[in-house]
């Protein structure tokens, strides 16, 4: 029996980041899952494009990039499967992108995997970073542990990161526009037990956004536990996306 093509896993970065955070994932688990990082316009691989600060426009733009990539891939392998992954700020975006892609291409993803994020109904109404000075925001970023210390020590890079974070928090304030989002494909939530921003119980609320059966996988660690060992996270993704092939 021929080995199936790896699922294309489109990954949305967390706040202040670009798709480069997923480069270590691309070789962490061989060819079992094909990791493809996707950037918003004006950032990373799309840095030459104008930035988009409207949530709906951002979702449509990112979904269009995924849809184009899928169309090109299906020209080569017609039964290729796909899924999405989003961490923290990227979780809501990835689910909305998955929904938009499914409608655009006429095929749903195998599953949407959301990690370390409050569902839209539980998002705080304001922006807790708005009152922070740039230095205070950098202290918060440093404490969260998701950014390399050498980047934070570089003045120009630190200033750039602060700008990206403020832009992303402005987008996050618009997540309430998808309070009623309901998708027809399954969701897997990846919850870290020691995450100080979102509890496993809160993560289970994502299930309300799908008419399909949803699941939760719990792991040890804090807010960025999914990035502690990419191979472990991708093995979880592999099991979730290939349950019909993997003996549990």
TrEMBL record:
GO biological processes: lipid biosynthetic process
Pfam families linked to this entry: Thioesterase
Classification via InterPro entries: AB_hydrolase_fold (IPR029058), TEII (IPR012223), Thioesterase (IPR001031)
Thioesterase domain mapped to chain residues: 8-231
Matches recorded under Gene3D superfamilies: alpha/beta hydrolase (3.40.50.1820)
UniProt family annotation: Belongs to the thioesterase family.
This protein's name: Thioesterase
């Amino acid at each position: 029996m021929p080995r199936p093509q790896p699922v294309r896993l489109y990954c949305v970065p967390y706040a202040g980041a670009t798709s480069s955070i997923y480069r270590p994932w691309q070789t962490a688990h061989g060819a079992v899952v094909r990791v493809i990082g996707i950037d918003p316009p004006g950032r990373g691989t799309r840095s030459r494009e104008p930035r988009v600060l409207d949530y709906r426009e951002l979702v449509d733009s990112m979904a269009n990039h995924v849809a184009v990539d899928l169309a090109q891939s299906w020209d080569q392998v017609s039964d290729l499967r796909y899924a999405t992954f989003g961490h923290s700020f990227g979780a809501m975006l990835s689910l909305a992108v998955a929904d938009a892609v499914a409608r655009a291409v006429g095929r749903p993803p195998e599953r949407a995997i959301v990690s370390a994020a409050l569902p839209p109904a539980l998002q705080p109404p304001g922006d807790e970073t708005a009152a922070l000075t740039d230095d205070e925001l950098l202290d918060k970023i440093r404490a969260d542990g998701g950014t390399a210390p050498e980047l934070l020590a570089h003045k120009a890079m630190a200033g750039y990161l602060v700008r990206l974070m403020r832009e992303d928090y402005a987008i996050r304030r618009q997540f309430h526009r998808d309070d009623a989002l309901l998708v027809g494909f399954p969701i897997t939530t990846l919850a870290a037990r020691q995450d100080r921003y979102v509890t496993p119980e809160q993560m289970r609320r994502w299930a309300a956004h799908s008419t399909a059966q949803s699941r939760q996988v719990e792991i040890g660690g804090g807010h960025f536990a999914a990035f502690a060992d990419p191979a472990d996270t991708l093995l979880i993704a592999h099991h979730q996306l290939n349950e019909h092939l993997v003996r549990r």
